[in-house]
Amino acid sequence: MYLSQNGNDYRDKSEVVDRYGFFVTPEELNSEEPIDRTVLRRREQKWLDMFSSWDIYIRDKFDKLKQRCRKGIPPALRGRAWFYLSSAEFRRKRAEQEFNFEIKNVFGLYSTKLPTANVLYDIEKDLARSFPDHEMFRGDGFGQKGLFDVLKAYAVHDPVVGYCQAQAPIAGILLMHLPAEDAFWVFVQINEEYIKGYFSDGLIAIKEDALATEILVQRVCPKGYHILKKLEVDPILYTLDWYMTLFTRTYRAPRIHRIWDMFFCEGVKILFRIALVILKDSLESSEAEKCDNAIDLVSLIKYNAKQFTIDQLLIKMDQLKLNDYDLADACRLARLQLHNGQKNGQSTQHQREVGAKRILVGG
Amino acid sequence: MLEKATDRSYGMCVGKSCLLLQFTDKRFQPVHDLTIGVEFGARMITIDGKQIKLQIWDTVNIIEMSFNLCISYYRGAAGALLVYDITQRHTFNHLTSWLEDARQHSNSNMVIMLIGNKCDLFARREVQKEEGEAFAREHGLIFMETSAKTAANVEEAFINTAREIYGKIQEGVFDPTNEVNGIKIGPQHANPRTGERPSSSAEKGGCC
Question: Where is this region: Disordered (chain B) (predicted)?
Fold first, then answer.
């Protein structure tokens, strides 16, 4: 299958479209893993059963749910599962409540409003740049209207955050799975629950998580920590795009889908664990020892990150000697270091434990 | 890098990533992925028979300035390319504030080259070449118009910046034994046989 009309300007005859809509080389297409249809049907049935008793799975059978997310959500049900996992429906209803039930379609209302001119300009400029290698978004691809609608509606919904470039690829991935309105409410949940503060002015939450990552490197890979310190590599250099775009700049489908399956269930700790696997592996390599400057080392880490298969990531994530307590502790230390022990109104203390369960049942 | 809409910084596609790609990989990508975070490019060049490894950092904007690291990386840069788009007047109008930030945080000897990119799009030109020249003259910058698409002057822009830096090393303005200047002499691990040679790092910045 060759490019659709949408991509005409950028047609490259060597490109084919994979089953996820990404343009790849024929060699990449052949390397796709075959899916066992019987296993897939069985998983689909299990997920349909879970949808019909969702509350029970979240409250009492969360480990089962988590395990199924780790195995990968069946592609046909992925969008719906993300919608459920993020409690997007609850957020939609709460928005109606905020408008005293006078507005039945809050997304529709947002769509009739405009953010400031420079926000609008920035969104429009990025539409074709968020996924130039996907048939929905390349050139004047059919997905760009949805992307524009979602990003514009969010800027109206939260004018303080407005629009940040890293949001475009996140919305893009959602739109590959969900209609614009549903994608919007999942997008709101990502921004307000999962990675709250990542796009706020000053980017405090990102700085905290970057530093917490470095603290955890010291714990899981002291030798690597020593190299990072020796070459004065600021953790922002390697974590910023991983965390802010939820790894969409590093992984394409199907790996990014699998990562998001886990992320929607377990929250931001998945980002940390993947980052630590990549860092540990890269910094323990002989190439890392040869690096004599920060740029070469970060380039090595970024290159290395792309080489992992999803199975390698999963196995190594399991092998990390790290629990939720260590993660929370690293975040606490990072906050203390960054704010120098001051009481800080923008503390992100509660946010590190956000996952599907916490969003739905709290506590 | 990351661009965020604020009053001061319109996110801009002036072609920073495309210039870098043209210089390091000799190819043009009409629509480049959003650059989020920090991206780097590197290429070996030869000046006066000396092999020099250029390390290029893509890129800096107002938001990143809030990170201490950017300030430290600014200090550690020997050169910068300040890029605007000749078809978008507002990108040219932002140069003054960008230059102030760069000068404030960088080594005072940093070589800054002003680049008017997209010169292949002459029919849509909004900023005249003379205006770029005048701005560069006024602020003591080197000036060049480039096209990442046709590759016009791209090679020259990076190499001339490196040549200026090299000149400053020869004159003793930059002390290559002090890594704070972003310059390092020594064997490169990539090719340990070549022995001693200077390696400079240039930083490429955008006006956003």
Answer: 182-208
